Amino acid sequence: MPHTQMPKAKAGLDLSIVVPTFNERGNVERLIAALEVALQGIAWQVIFVDDDSPDGTAAAVKSIAATDSRVQCLHRVGRRGLAGAVIEGAMASAAPFVAVIDGDMQHDETLLPAMFAALRADRADLVIGSRFLQADGLDKGLSAIRQMGSRAAAWLGRKALRAEVSDPVSGFFMIRRTLIEQVAQKLSTDGFKVLFDIIASQATPPRILELSYAFREREVGESKLDSRVVVEYAGLVLGKLTNDLLSVRTVLFGLVGASGILVHLSVLNLLKLGGHNSFEQAQILAALVAMTSNYFINNALTYRDRRHKGWRLMSGYLQFCLVCSVGLAANFAVADLVRTYVPGWIAAGTAGAAVGAIWNYVISTITVW
Ligand code: GDD
Ligand code: MN
Description:
By secondary structure, this protein is an alpha/beta fold. Helix content is 53%, strand content 10%.
């Protein structure tokens, strides 16, 4: 049958719900049931994006998907990362609107119809579920430390975006699909802050509406947000603050470098307290300790995607020390040179450190990792 005579497609899809999951087996059925209740009257589908969770989340989704065509599983292998999962799920959608919601029931799915209504009536391009619009929004779901951290992250995000968004790090939002497609190439696939990234990457500021909800306590499974996620977020925000001049990797490298300075000074101080009296020797020892800690932190964090293991870890370490020694020599040489033209330590020290850091970064990226 020529395709012009094909039966006409049924009425289209309104909304894709993207659910990133990692070890959420116990929440899958509950979430689908809750969506079913909340989304009456909307033509929806749900796309679980699972990173091959060891607990068998994907199998749980597929067993439901086998008999319910609204349910799909994007089962990724060899990859990890919340942001990347969200982007891939959204890119798999053909619906005009895409919602993102956590798979652990901490977000309030009963907010979805109101989000959808706002988008369809074209009152906004993006609707965010915000935990901060009401005083007790965070009370139950997060520890005191996490509450403070969340508020700080939101504040930082607002400053960087220059947008009045109370919760730019929310994992709960609904958006016109094309807004993600347009910027998909630019989005970082690492970390938790995909919403922040989507907003920051838009060429024209989207019209944003925020709706308040209370963040629920997690009943099943555990949180995957750890300190690495926090450092990555700092990198993302700094990158955006400098208009992408600095990539997440550059910023991480810089942060690790700064930690190295602290290590260096601490070691010097310890040696001094311990009665060591050769300054030159102490400097060399302190520099070695700092290089060592920088190498291992960079390997675990900055270059995590091409991390060295086994023998390569040792040869990489030696290479890194070599690169950084040249960087240190360049640092001193430039500082000396600048000091002959500009009086005082500050300009000379800054110029030296900048040249040394750029050298270390560029050469490490090319040769060590
Ligand atoms: N596919 C995939 N891959 N999913 C992941 C990954 C991953 O590497 N890491 C986490 N997830 C899923 C979880 O299974 C869950 O459904 C959702 O992403 C959120 O992860 P949680 O670990 O529950 O995050 P949280 O509750 O601690 O953090 C909350 O607050 C953040 C803002 O501070 C969430 O609402 C986040 O979305 C939000 O950004
Ligand atoms: Mn959660």
